[in-house]
Design goal:
Elements (H helix, E strand, L loop, with lengths): L1 E6 L4 E4 L2 E2 L4 H11 L3 E5 H6 L10 E5 L10 E4 L2 H8 L7 E5 L1 H7 L5 E7 L7 E2 L9 E6 L3 E3 L2 E10 L2
Parallel strand pairs: 1-7, 1-8, 4-5, 4-7, 5-6
Antiparallel strand pairs: 2-3, 2-9, 8-12, 10-12, 11-12
Length: 163
Amino acid sequence: MNLIVAVDQNWAIGKNNQLLVRIPADQKFFRETTTGKVVVMGRKTLESFPNGQPLKNRTNIVLTRNKDYAVKGAVVVHSMDELHDELKKYNSEDVFVIGGEKIYEQLLDECDVAHVTKIEFAYDADSYFPNLDENPDWEITGDSEEQTYFDLEYYFYRYEKKK
C-alpha cells in the first residue's frame, strides 16, 4: 500500500480541514499518480474536496465512524476491519492513502511506499504527518531536483519502508 502527502518543513499537512498550499505541479503529480487507482481517506478529507465529491477516475474509499454517512460515488466503511475487508478486493500496489492526519496515522505501518512533497516553508497548521526522517523504518529512495512555485521551494521524495 502507498501513501501520498504534501508536508511543510515541520511535517504539517493542513489547517481548518484545508491544504496548506495548492501547488499546481504537486496537484498534477497527485492526479497522475492516483488516477485509475484506489484512494483511501477520512470523511473530513472527502468533505474538503470541491463540492465534497469523490475524486474522478478513482475508487474512493472513505473511513468514518458515522454509520449514517453515505456519499454517491464512494465506498464508505466504518471500521478498520471493514476497510481491510474492502481493500482485499484490490492490488495493494494500487492503493493510496490520501489523508487526513488520523487516517495517515492509522495506516502508515501498513504502507510500503510514501510519496512526499516537501515544501520548504513553515505554515500555521493544525494537522501533521508523522516525520519519516525520524522514523528508522523508512528511507528515502528517490528525490527530485529543487522545484519552485513563485517563491516556494519544494521537492518530491519517495520513501520506502526498509525490508
